[in-house]
Amino acid sequence: MAGLQSQDFARISATTFRPPDVRHDFEVAKLIDVSKCIGCKACQAACLEWNNLKEEVGINTGVYDNPHDLTPNTWTLMRFTEWDNPDTGNLEWLIRKDGCMHCADPGCLKACPAPGAIVQYNNGIVDFVSENCIGCGYCVKGCPFNIPRISQADNKAYKCTLCSDRVAVGQAPACAKACPTGAIVFGTKAAMIEHANGRITDLKSRGFANAGLYDPPGVGGTHVMYVLHHNDQPQLYANLPKDPVISPVVELWKGVTKYAGLAALGFAATFAFVHATIARRNEVSRAEDREAEHLIDEEAAHGRQGQ
Amino acid sequence: MVARDNDERTVRRSEERTTVDRTEGRVRVNHWVTAISLILLAFSGLALFHPSMFWLSSLFGGGSMTRMLHPWIGVVLMVSFAILFLQVLKHNFWNKRDTHWMRHVGDAMSGNEENLPEVGRYNAAQKLIFWTMTLVILVLFGSGIVIWYEYFGTSFTIDQQRVGHIVHALAAVAIMLVVIVHIYAAFYVRGTISSMTEGRVTGGWAFRHHRRWLREEAQKGVIDERQKPPPGRPRDLHPAE
User: Fold this and answer.
1) What are the pLDDT digits (tens) for A162-213?
2) Closest residue to B203, CB basis, from A138, A269, A289
3) What is the pTM of this model?
């Protein structure tokens, strides 16, 4: 966040104000056309290259996914699914480039308790700011797509930045730059939707009647979108959620619980303070002190008789 | 077994006042370890609960340190409360008199304790605090483990962790409310605090609030410190005698 101003952000995590968001000129988006993807993993390699990350050498378990899941170093991952299409009898190889979707309404940012650890720029990119991250893992629970990963080394959360550093100087993200088939394209969100519409028309003319754009409204739309040949069944693509929303449990926790909880505590503390100040004190009287002496004498005598 | 009988006596008369021993030193130590842990947990927990409270994380060395320390303080609390639980459990079993007392709780709140049955060592409200604390601390510890990401991040599914968070937050609000009631009652009922600082209360306090307990203690006999000669002064040198 260093070097940026509040005006550069649309949202800042764990703050009690909304930034003015005056520089909100246009939103960017990355469009991933799954129907054009050949699974070469050039995007994965470009991501490691540009961000100067190293992934451990893994173990082959008989699938193409490598590594087997997103990690603090692998911010984007090709997920391979073999699907028997019951309508055509064809075996389809569905390959989806997984990574942060850069939601318009980010669950990670909503869940984050550390001020400024997660920000959304005016252009829609959602970024993690390591220097403010405290490593609590709340973003993992906030995310509807299971994207953030916490490093065991430094207890900081990591994910795709949409190459915010490249975008800031007018460059496309490294993955889009590296894609050899043009399956990954980058531009303004409006331009990407227009581009997608052309692709969807083309796919429909080729027999993919359910082809469509994956830009889920449950999270306010995303700044990473997919063109899917089977947009009616996004779960086919390695469990891409059909209608992702921020979990209602997280909404409850970060919504009414937060405010009602503080209000209840404030009310209780205030009531206790006021009552303690104005109410009649519950004090031991002199008479009770004297009565206690009598009672002690009496009972002590009883005690001696009992022995 | 005369010596043991002497040890059991808790009512003391001195020249200045009559007191009754109420809380042993080992129980007081656990009470205060638990109390301090609870306050530290409240501060560090509130820091992560609402942005307007995040400044409290400075008390623990920043956000990351707060995130790291909070669960460990929880472990300290769990251990110290478990010992405290075993130490005072025998005084906290519910009986019919407690049910009767609870029906007239309004009289107790307004200071009209003469309308209530004589109370033993703890009254029904105190027992309720004890059992509520026990339940809520167990819930907090259990849900706390589920959301302790550093060590248990992969032991529970994300959905389980989400539920863990809301349960932990609600239980935390509940325990803070119980603590407010507990501290408030200790101040409002004058003369109570000394039972946890010095370990003893005045005879009048015991008579007013826990008369059955005072009877039981008095029946064991009285330690009369008035009869002792002043220390370090041989009797025959005393000018008055």
Assistant:
1) 999 999 999 999 999 999 999 999 999 999 999 999 999 999 999 999 999 9
2) A289
3) 0.91
Q: Is B210 a catalytic residue?
A: no
CA dihedral sign of residues A273, A279, A284, A286: positive
Cα–Cα distance, B186 to A67 (Å, whole number): 59
Residue A22 pLDDT > 90: no
- Arithmetic mean of pLDDT, B223-227: 81
Distances (CA, A) of B130 to A1, A287, B84: 48, 31, 10
8 Å CB contact of A292 and B215: no
Kindly list the residues from chain A whose CB atom is less than 8 angstroms away from the CB atom of residue B204: 284-286, 288-289, 291-292
Number of domains present in the structure of chain B? 1
Give the span between the Cα atoms of A109 and A98, in whole angstroms: 19
Interface with B, mutate which of A18, A71, A134, A277 (most B CBs under 10 A): A134
Q: How far apart are CA A262 and CA A13, in angstroms?
A: 19
Which residues from B are below 8 Å from A153, CB to CB?
none
Instruction: Identify whether the C-beta of residue A112 lies closer than 8 Å to the C-beta of residue A140.
Output: no
Which one of the listed residues B168, B182, B209, B210 is annotated catalytic? B182
Count of H-run helices and E-run strands, chain A: 9, 11
| Domain CATH for B72 | 1.20.950.20
Which architecture does CATH list for A6-243? 2-Layer Sandwich (3.30)
